[in-house]
């Protein structure tokens, strides 16, 4: 007697091997419902396989260092260079060699739910992680590029273990630690991707807190970026301390008021 479709669905949920005899048996079942379930299984298996291969690709920088007996590798990334308000936030993450974060990617490519899922895992599984930031006043004082380096340095200093090597997204830091600067590192290194996600979620939380203090600006929606809504709020309610006075169009408004 053949299995009911619900029973087949449950068995397919447990299968991981495309060469399984049971899967071949289901493939020969002529019922349309079973054929749809088998087709869905193959689609999902392909997606999982692609995610696994991408993860392995994103581990190449780390694996090359592990092979040189470099074990404490910190991925470093920042979020918030472009907004008109709020700090620039950086994160540094040292992952264990056997960590498997399949599906992790550049924070901009992940949904908020996915980012929160990975933040939880990173905080639970990382050897160490650190958060650093530079305020809007520091950005105005030393410029955004230098403030980004300062935030990254502060994140690294928060690590409980001193890193042996830094993998940094498109930046070189004036620190006595060997480092590799990687263009689009948040999409090509798993350690930098972890830092990217941690920095993004930390900054988003800070901007949501700021929106409670200053509800007229909509920070929880645009995170301080120069959206039409944000510019209209500045025009109506003025500039607050968290605005970057060295950034256009804030700078022009400050100058016009002096």
Provide a descriptive summary of the structure in words.
Helix content is 53%, strand content 12%. The protein contains 12 helices and 5 strands. Strands 3-2-1-4-5 form a 5-stranded mixed sheet.
Work out the helicity level. Answer: 40-55%
Straight-line distance between termini: 86 Å
| Sequence of strands across the biggest β-sheet | 3-2-1-4-5
Count of alpha and pi helical runs: 12
Q: Major beta sheet, specifics?
A: 5 strands, mixed
Q: Please trace the helix and strand order, writing H or E for each element.
A: HHHHEEHEHHEEHHHHH
β-strand number: 5
Low-confidence stretches: none
pLDDT averaged residue by residue: 95
Radius of gyration: 23 Å
What is the oligomer described by this structure?
single chain
Which descriptor suits the 3D outline? flat
What attributes does this structure have?
single chain, 258 residues, alpha/beta, 5-stranded mixed sheet, 12 helices, 5 strands, 53% helix, 12% strand
Nutshell version of this structure?
The chain is an alpha/beta fold. It has helices spanning 5-14, 21-27, 32-58, 60-67, 112-125, 136-142, 144-157, 185-188, 190-213, 219-222, 228-237, 250-256; strands at 73-79, 88-94, 128-134, 165-169, 178-182. Strand 1 and strand 2 form a beta hairpin.
SSE arrangement:
Blueprint: H1 5-14, H2 21-27, H3 32-58, H4 60-67, E1 73-79, E2 88-94, H5 112-125, E3 128-134, H6 136-142, H7 144-157, E4 165-169, E5 178-182, H8 185-188, H9 190-213, H10 219-222, H11 228-237, H12 250-256
Helix pairs in contact: 1-3, 5-9, 6-7
